Amino acid sequence: MDYRILGSAGFRVSALGLGCMGMSQSYGVADEREALKTLDRAIERGVTLFDTAEVYGPFTNETLLGQALGARRNHVQLATKFGFRIENGKVNGVDSRPSHIREVVEASLSRLKTDRIELLYQHRVDPSVPMSDVAGTVARLVEEGKVRYFGLSEAGVDAIWEAHAEHPVTALQSEYSLWERNIEADILPLLREQGIGFVPFSPLGRGFLTGTARPAETYPASDFRHTDPRFMGSNFEANQRAAVCVGIVAERHNATAAQIALAWLLSRGPDIVPIPGTKRAHYLDENLGALDIRLTDEDTKQLDKALSAEHIVGERYNANNMALVNR
Questions:
Q1: Are strands 49-51 and 18-19 parallel, antiparallel or unpaired?
Q2: Dihedral of the CA atoms 305, 307, 310, 313 (nearest 10)?
Q3: Model pTM?
Q4: CA 313 to CA 237: how far, in whole Å?
Q5: Contact in structure between 179 and 209 (CB atoms under 8 Å)
Q6: Which member of 87, 227, 241, 261 has the greatest number of CB atoms within 10 A?
Q7: Would you state the pLDDT for residue 222?
Q8: Beta partners for residue 79, in sequence order
Q9: What is the mean pLDDT of the chain?
């Protein structure tokens, strides 16, 4: 396994982490037996960064990880998140009040069966709570040994500055992939200037970059992609044409499209640690194969041209989810 460093404090993690959300929600039917097999395989293969959140399930994903890790807890690093108000099993807005952060952390520690969280993210910025209060609360949790590092998710430039001024931000987690470059203009330069690591989620474009995507209406209502604008109508057709290039490059390397998409991300810098999500062990093995691929300059140029912003159609979220993105 290759390793990378997140943040100026030297948080060392596997070069690819594992996004665990899909094991409990959002993408198809949950299969706990297969999920546990995948978690076992990830540990066996040397994956150390496991990404979860209280809202995944909700709550069940953290419980699954706590069940799976057991005596192997010290071999991995857990990342989880606070920041949503969850009522009757549904998200009802954001909530990053200091008292709520503490409640969430205590509950997460219990579900994860652990005494500390390596990386604690604010899941979405709460405009009603000063970022200094959020970062200050996490700083005290760090002092108490319940948290090691502080992270943000989908935060904009101002929020990152404000948080980092109060307590060092180790990593930002946001969407980034061949077909979603929104962080390149302002966010990524700021992270590098301040020594903050970057953890891209949805690095495979929710399946689009692997060539396995289907139109939105073919997914059940419980599946995130059912309401994803990029999977709808003519958007789907245009995006599918753009994504064909990934498969063409994959053929040259005797690789899969998923491996090429991940190799592209890994090539963007040593401070980037993608967390592809999967609930199946064979896809985990496939994803880890990306660590052995070296793209040529010609590969990169071809991919960047085919998947440039003008060729990607549709917002990356529906209106409700876009409203929670802090930029």
A1: parallel
A2: 160
A3: 0.96
A4: 9
A5: yes
A6: 261
A7: 84
A8: 51, 119
A9: 96
Q: DSSP per residue over 236-286, as a string?
A: HHHHHHHHHHHHHHHHHTT--HHHHHHHHHHTT-TTB----B-SSHHHHHH
State the architecture of 3-205+259-293 in CATH terms: Alpha-Beta Barrel (3.20)
pLDDT tens-digit profile of 56-81?
Answer: 999 999 999 999 999 999 999 999 99
Please give the positions annotated as active site. Answer: 56
How far is the C-alpha of 129 from the C-alpha of 96, rounded, in Å?
A: 6
Beta carbons of 314 and 253 less than 8 angstroms apart: no
Q: Which two tokens stand for residue 65?
A: 């990880």
| In the chain, domain spans | 3-205+259-293
Tens of pLDDT, residues 123-168: 999 999 999 999 999 999 999 999 999 999 999 999 999 999 999 9
C-alpha span between 190 and 123 (Å, rounded): 19
